[in-house]
Amino acid sequence: YHFGSRIAPRYDHSDKVAGLLQRALLELFPVLEGTSFTHAWGGPLGAPRDWMSSVGFDPATGVGWAGGYVGDGVTTTNLAGRTLADLLVDADSALCHLPWVGHRSKRWEPEPLRWLGVNAGLAAARFGDAVETRSGRASRVAGRLERLLG
């Protein structure tokens, strides 16, 4: 997370993160050992305050929205597009009655509280992961962080 929710192309790729993801992929799919990885993706995530994606359409303004996929955008974008299409034509489909339709998340805390909170949470997650790696047991810190974030 960058202060003020800044976004810049130089933030979109981390060789360290790409390497960790490749190692995780090889652990899940050992048959890929020896495969050359030629591309990696990086970039900002849309993380709403309550971690709930949303989609909606305001017929009065003609403005529609969809987002807050918290890393699940590949699949969620498809569902959001189909839901938004039904909302645009005023269809009474099951998609238009999903809990995320019209949902509005609370705003994130103002800076510098947001920066401090995000980075404290990231540090707690790294610490919890290290404890779990060393001990082989669930970390209390990770458990508390999970309850806090939902």
Biggest sheet character: 2 strands, antiparallel
Classification by helices and strands: mainly alpha
| Strand elements, count | 2
DSSP strand (E) fraction?
5-15%
- Nearest-angstrom radius of gyration? 19 Å
Order of helices and strands: HEEHHH
Helix segment count?
Answer: 4
Numbering strands along the chain, what is their spatial order in the largest sheet? 1-2
End-to-end CA span: 19 Å
Approximate shape: globular
Q: Helical percent range?
A: 40-55%
Low-confidence stretches: none
Q: Roughly what is the average pLDDT, rounded to an integer?
A: 91
Describe this structure in words.
It is a single chain. This protein is mostly helical and 150 residues long. The protein has helices at residues 15-28, 73-88, 113-135, 140-149, and strands at residues 54-58, 63-67. Strands 1-2 form a two-stranded antiparallel ribbon. The longest helix has 23 residues, at 113-135.
Notable traits:
150 residues; mainly alpha; two-stranded antiparallel ribbon; 4 helices; 42% helix; 7% strand
Write the layout of secondary structure elements.
Elements: H1 15-28, E1 54-58, E2 63-67, H2 73-88, H3 113-135, H4 140-149
Antiparallel strand pairs: 1-2
Helix pairs in contact: 3-4
